Amino acid sequence: MSNAEHIREEDLQLLALGALPEEEAAAANAHAAGCAECAKELAEARGRAAALAFGLAQEKPAAAAKEKLFARIALEREGKREETSKGTDQVAVAPRVRGEERKRSWWNWVLAPVAAVLMLVSLGLWRENERLVREVREARLVAARLQQERVHVERLVHVLASPETITVKLAGTTDAPQSSGVVKYNEKTGTVIYTAELPGLPADKVYQMWLVPANGAPISAGVFSQGEAGKAQVWSAEVPAQTEPKAFAVTIEPAGGVPQPTGPKVLLGAS
Known about the structure:
By secondary structure, the protein is an alpha+beta fold. The chain has five helices and eight strands.
């Protein structure tokens, strides 16, 4: 008898009456010692047997009664074994165990789809959370970029409005006679702001702005490419503060710019 099975009802009654064969009685008692439910039912069966015994007149049974009872029990058990071997190889489980198995099966049938739904909901929430995290990160990057641009624009406005900022007009040279430009320079901060009207260039060429100081070599004030015709563009750069300018010039240089001017001058203006 396995721990998963319970003592059959008829065996409980026989055990309570002391009518179960010794080997089977020992197995049943061992099972009841480790099974609270069977122990309870065995105690109740013994209680009923005791009550029945006290309620009846005590008579000594005939000497052959016990042998007949055991013979009948053996005959019934033998018949049940034959039916089992002919019909099925499975061991019959007590109705109580089958009821518990049906209950567990019903709960599994209910909980399986619930678990699947919860998994899908959790996956959806995780994806939505990831999307929101990305959007928040992108929004923060945009906000930081806008903040930087705002600070930059405010600084340029401050430089343009400062009385210390000078204006230098640039005129086209023989290499670009129709070109022109304007430079705003604040010596105190070293900020150079400029705009220019120049023809377009090949992809491997750029314009480069130069501050020509009163003393020393020209200082690069950034590279730029001319945009669409008729569309105003403004560029800015930083040079060492307190640099006294003698002139500003624009040259045509290789893409990326150069440390010192090498190409033809297209704009020039003295400060």
